[in-house]
Design goal:
Layout: E1 14-22, H1 27-40, E2 45-49, E3 53-55, E4 66-75, H2 79-93, E5 107-113, E6 118-120, E7 123-125, H3 134-143, E8 148-149, E9 152-153, H4 154-161, E10 167-168
Antiparallel strand pairs: 1-4, 1-5, 2-4, 3-4, 3-10, 6-7, 8-9
Helix pairs in contact: 1-2, 3-4
Length: 172
């Protein structure tokens, strides 16, 4: 099981990918606030942020459209500690438990943690649905088209899944 605390002093930061989504309230502002909180709490150092995309709901379809974005960052936290921080920020922002894949004020997913494969009850890395979700792959490909995750090139995976329904956010 991964350590729940930061890596030992002096350990090099790990490159990570984050996926963020919101479909309640000011969706783009929720994503920006989550990213600000991640940095303010010294959870991560953001390296790149994608555009925000408008996407149809996935899984549970009877809900409002989502705003989605991805970020590349560095962290010194262990995977478990990073997950705990992401969940704490979701709670701090007011996320409430609903149905699986249901409406949410904010969702922060860890997409990958360096090259580390991990299969824990609460965290699977790379994210187990990464290559099934155009709403994650398209923004990730925008900021890291040559990135390989689990041996797959993100740009190619995004092109395979993108049916044109993942579009850059424009105010309504």
């Amino acid at each position: 099981m991964p350590s729940s605390g930061p890596d030992p002093a002096g350990a090099a930061p790990v490159e990570i990918g984050l996926g963020l989504g919101s479909n309640i309230g000011d969706k783009p502002a929720n994503i920006r606030r989550a990213l600000d909180l991640l940095e303010a709490r010294k959870t991560v150092e953001i390296v790149a942020i994608s555009s925000i995309y408008r996407t149809a709901p996935w899984g549970y379809l009877d809900q409002d459209a989502f705003a989605n974005a991805c970020a590349l960052a560095r962290t010194r936290l262990s995977p478990a500690a990073l997950l705990a921080e992401a969940k704490a920020i979701e709670a701090e922002m007011g996320r409430e438990k609903t149905i699986r894949w249901g409406p949410r004020l904010i969702d922060i997913d860890i997409l990958f943690y360096g090259d580390l494969p991990l299969a824990e009850p609460d965290l699977i890395l790379p994210h187990k649905e990464l290559f099934n979700r155009a709403f994650v792959l398209v923004p990730l490909a925008e900021i890291a088209p040559e990135l390989r995750v689990g041996g797959r090139l993100v740009r190619e995976a995004a092109a395979e899944l993108n049916d044109g329904s993942v579009r850059k956010w424009e105010p309504e």
